[in-house]
Amino acid sequence: MEIEVTMSVSTELLRSFVSVGLHLSFSKAAKANGVSQSAISQSIKQLEKDLGIPLFERTTKSVSFTKYGRELFETSVE
Q1: In the Cβ-directed half-sphere of 27, how many Cα atoms lie within 13 Å?
Q2: 64 forms bridges with which residues in the sheet?
Q3: Per-residue pLDDT tens for 24-40?
Q4: Of 40, 60, 68, 75, which has the fewest CB atoms closer than 10 Å, so is most exposed?
Q5: Residues 6+ apart with CB under 8 A from 36
Q6: Across the strands, what pairs with 63?
Q7: Is 72 exposed, middle or buried (0-12, 13-18, 19+ CB in 10 A)?
């Protein structure tokens, strides 16, 4: 499956996604962006909803990419 990001996806949502991907932590991404952890979490949930796919696997102790999340991250940071 190829992920297609359209112009309707907010730059802010993608910025949050890349930050979580770089830190593999919602709290560290929030701190780096000067926003609350809740704001980062809501941004990621909205992006996943907009794209119709999960981007991260979440546990209480860790965050990791799904297959599609890894693909989008690699495309986003090129």
Answers
A1: 3
A2: 57
A3: 999 999 999 999 999 99
A4: 60
A5: 30
A6: 58
A7: buried
Q: Residue 3 pLDDT > 60, yes or no?
A: no
Residue identified by tokens 């991250």 is 73
Within a 13 Å sphere around the CA of 62, how many CA atoms are in the beta-carbon half? 4
Query: How does DSSP assign the chain, residue by residue?
Result: ------TTS-HHHHHHHHHHHHHT-HHHHHHHHTS-HHHHHHHHHHHHHHHTS--EEE-SS-EEE-HHHHHHHHHHT-
Q: At what angle do helices 11-23 and 26-33 cross, to 10 degrees?
A: 120
